[in-house]
Amino acid sequence: MMKEIEAIKKIPIQSSDRTSPYIQDESHLDSGSAEAVYLPACEDEIRLLLSRFHRTGTPVTISGSRTGVVGGAVPQGGVIISTERMNRVLGMRRQGTDWLIKVEPGVILKDLQRQIESKSFENAMPLSAHTTSETAQKASKGASYEISGYQDFLSDKGQYFYPPDPTEGTATLGGTVAANSSGARSLMYGPTRGYVQGLRVALAGGDILDIPRGRYTADDSKELRVQTEQGNTFRIPVPAYRMPQVKNAAGYYARPDMDLIDLFIGAEGTLGVITCMELRLIPKPQNILSGVAFFEDSGKALECAQKIMILRRFSESMLRPMALEYFDGHSLELLRRKRQADGTGSVIPEFPSYAKGALFFEQFYEDDENLEKIYEDWQEVLEAYGVRMDDTWGGIDERELEKMKNFRHALPDILNEIFRERKRHYPNIHKISADIAVPDSALEELVFFYQAEIEQKGLEYVLFGHIGESHLHLNILPRTDKEMVLAKNLSREFAKKAASLGGTISAEHGIGKMKHQFLEILYGPDGIREMVRIKLLLDPKGIINRGNIFPEGYLSSPE
């Protein structure tokens, strides 16, 4: 076994190296530490590595493209297993009106979307070869294979797409499944969970779980009973805590009749390493209307969004947004500054100087007649809240859609730039974000609470995001170490407020290593101990993604 492990590609990391991309992610936490990065090329190599590190008790951090914002990929000692070389499409098959595509965890989201649209797959190989060392050797040399089921997919004249659309298109699919990622279009399509039809997971001891959706469901004793391919059996207790009834990415999934596959989706890599996924593709609508409406007052934008979501429920209304995003005045001001700094080469379009709030929306339409009716309904509701239609962006062609996409996606990049600069002067500061979702009826109360508490302390902040799901991203931008302390204290108060309103403390980004205390606010110590019992059942030494979701103290004393 030692000889086989030595053949796996490895990159040593010097203890003094604080710049390696493998020891940091987009959270802007201080860089972590690790002895080395292993880059397996197939499932068998992951099994070998896990078996070895399980025996030695060596912590293992799983790494994809490190786009997470809660520190999940920042290692705290031990070694790193990167899935970047496992980036192949394995097979396809038809399921009703949809297609299922089987992929390795290192496939990049935007690459998959492009390949599905063009119906041209690179780095493909037959499913039967997935775990053979011969395939790993060939794959490492860049060999290409005919994909199983590809010809049938090619002969299908329809167009298909993978609906989950997190903002960061460079994320790996393994990472998006581990985080149950969502995005602007989750208002219509929901998060990643609804499109995962099968997983293969390597457990800490090297066993493999093959989990098609529907095979393992909770029984009357509230247990999930499963057998690995190596013949070992597990009886996994279903947690008794109740998840918030809103968009949620906080802790392990739990419901009385749950499917085993849902336990691993959103578990942030703490229960095992995903080696393969079967994902659902659905027919792609051909026509999309996009728009950005600007408001003289951010409160009017908030009220208008709430009205849109009410109208969305009525059959006589044509308003059926698949995405509805909000930008407050502080967000727009950052976009203005960035556009001015970039000059004529800026990708951020010019927008009205009076704007103190904005809504971005997308909606499908069937034909020109249908489009006209939809436009009329949008115009009526927007004008009722003071929107000037002459200043409203709207479009259906690629150029207009790209313009609005640049507007929507620029803000997260601007925030990252701000913190890279501020950390040069104050290394201990980082962005403090509230990834909170609440019931629709509680959104206005939460926003007013945010504004009152932050403005009282004189802190800089922006508020934007998925208002259609009552899920706004609050980002506090501390400028000094003192403001960092104030922001941290406020973030705890915001988590308490969310829980009191029936919401969640993380709707999209997960817990990682930054939000342990918030998870305890949501579920209490007993709820976290239920998660830890599952973790230690599948990973007895607690080596995989140690520090994610719950602090290490719970692993040493789970009871």
Summarize this structure as a short list of keywords or feature phrases.
559 residues; alpha+beta; seven-stranded antiparallel beta sheet; single chain
What's the short story on this structure?
This protein has helices at residues 2-6, 43-56, 109-118, 133-140, 150-155, 173-179, 186-189, 260-264, 298-311, 329-342, 368-383, 398-425, 443-456, 481-500, 516-538, 552-556, and strands spanning 9-12, 36-39, 60-63, 79-82, 89-95, 98-103, 160-161, 196-202, 208-212, 223-227, 233-237, 273-283, 288-295, 323-327, 357-364, 393-395, 432-437, 461-466, 471-476.
Fold and architecture overview:
The protein has 16 helices and 19 strands. The protein has 559 residues and is of the alpha+beta class. The strands form four sheets. A seven-stranded antiparallel beta sheet has the order 16-13-15-14-18-19-17, sandwiched between helices. Strand 8 and strand 9 (208-212) form a beta hairpin. Helix 10 packs across helix 12 and helix 13 (443-456) packs antiparallel against helix 14. The radius of gyration is 24 Å and the shape is globular. The model is unreliable at 131-145 (pLDDT under 50).
Strand and helix map with partners:
Elements: H1 2-6, E1 9-12, E2 36-39, H2 43-56, E3 60-63, E4 79-82, E5 89-95, E6 98-103, H3 109-118, H4 133-140, H5 150-155, E7 160-161, H6 173-179, H7 186-189, E8 196-202, E9 208-212, E10 223-227, E11 233-237, H8 260-264, E12 273-283, E13 288-295, H9 298-311, E14 323-327, H10 329-342, E15 357-364, H11 368-383, E16 393-395, H12 398-425, E17 432-437, H13 443-456, E18 461-466, E19 471-476, H14 481-500, H15 516-538, H16 552-556
Parallel strand pairs: 2-4, 3-4
Antiparallel strand pairs: 1-2, 5-6, 6-12, 7-12, 8-9, 8-12, 10-11, 13-15, 13-16, 14-15, 14-18, 17-19, 18-19
Helix pairs in contact: 10-12, 13-14, 14-15
